[in-house]
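User: Please fill in residues for this 358-position structure.
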């Protein structure tokens, strides 16, 4: 195992202590740097290698949560002069960034694993949306990942407007770092670079059209990724990035690029919700009635909080919406998993009965 090469990808003492020495007889350690449907690209710090999963891995995977994500550390077996890899097992994850799959299907979609910091991008034009930012923050805090908010396209508005946006964000979370920049201002790009520490993994999150691809091109000093024009009618962009991948920067920091997200469904985010809406959770505990509906009851702390301006009605409604959504999705997910397990047991019993008859 070439430790020096792996260290370039963020392999540290904590990960080294987790290495199963019995696995190292036949396998090597690599990091997943790209995911494209059912195929993967892994790296050992020296070269990128096309990879697939073993049949056993696929058979034992009950959920998308069991599959490798960009940023995962894995045990691989190499073939064909180390040009092809088979993934056998995952390392324990430090963090896992995930969301509900887009659409009606109730399932998890993996975004990235072992992320240290999430860079949540919103542009200061009509893309700026506090309710959407709250959703990103819930997802990030649920994964135990540190958030930083990047405000892009600051060349389009006045300094007073930028300060107003920053103040709105700090009203939600006082101590969250907020960095305003323009992709066309080299000095402001340097302010973003300062945040990206060597050996740490960052994940770029944001809607299409906020300037993630342009920022990434600025960070790597190359036009490796195409950018697309923004639609004038709604300010939205089309997906530039089509797959998730990990890029190593010159200073040794790693950035996971993601396709733009227009739908941020949550499944179970109790930790994230209580972290982002802590003042609402605190107020609820002071309601006179434990079954308070917060609509008309006497001595309702939530109604008093809205009346006094302690919380806004929009923020409280967003909290309620996500709380109900998370509860519904979690219930649906658990029910579906039960059905899947029951069906799996039925198939197993049929195969066993067939085998016994032979």
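Assistant: Residues filled in for all 358 positions:
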């Amino acid at each position: 195992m070439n430790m020096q090469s792996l260290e370039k990808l963020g392999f540290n003492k904590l990960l080294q202590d987790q290495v199963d020495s019995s696995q190292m007889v036949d396998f090597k350690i690599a990091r997943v740097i790209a995911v494209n449907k059912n195929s993967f690209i892994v790296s050992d710090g020296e070269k990128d290698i096309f990879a697939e999963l073993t049949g056993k891995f696929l058979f034992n995977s009950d959920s998308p949560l069991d599959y490798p994500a960009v940023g995962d550390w894995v045990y691989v077996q190499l073939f064909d002069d180390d040009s092809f890899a088979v993934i056998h097992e995952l390392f324990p994850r430090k963090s896992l960034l995930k969301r509900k799959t887009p659409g009606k299907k109730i399932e998890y979609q993996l975004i990235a694993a072992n992320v240290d910091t999430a860079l949540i991008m919103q542009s200061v034009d009509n893309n700026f949306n506090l309710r959407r930012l709250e959703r990103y923050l819930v997802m990030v805090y649920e994964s135990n990942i540190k958030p930083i908010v990047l405000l892009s396209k600051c060349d389009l508005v006045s300094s007073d407007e930028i300060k107003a946006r920053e103040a709105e964000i700090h009203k939600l979370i006082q101590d969250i770092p907020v960095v305003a920049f323009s992709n066309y201002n080299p000095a402001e790009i340097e302010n973003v670079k300062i945040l990206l520490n060597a050996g740490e993994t960052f994940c770029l999150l944001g809607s299409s059209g906020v300037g993630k691809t342009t920022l990434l091109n600025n960070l790597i000093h190359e036009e490796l990724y195409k950018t697309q024009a923004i639609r004038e009618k709604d300010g939205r962009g089309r997906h530039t990035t089509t797959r998730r991948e990990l890029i190593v920067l010159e200073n040794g920091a790693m950035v996971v690029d993601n396709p733009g997200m227009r739908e941020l469904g949550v499944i179970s985010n109790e930790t994230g919700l209580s972290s982002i809406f802590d003042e609402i959770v605190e107020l609820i505990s002071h309601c006179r009635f434990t079954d308070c509906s917060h609509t008309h009851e006497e001595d309702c702390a939530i109604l008093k909080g809205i009346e006094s301006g302690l919380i806004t009605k929009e923020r409280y409604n967003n909290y309620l919406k996500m709380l109900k959504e998370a509860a519904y999705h979690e219930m649906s997910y658990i029910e579906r998993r039960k059905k899947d397990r029951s069906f799996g047991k039925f198939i197993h019993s049929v195969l066993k009965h067939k085998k016994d008859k032979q």
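For context: Residues 227-241 have pLDDT under 50 and may be disordered.
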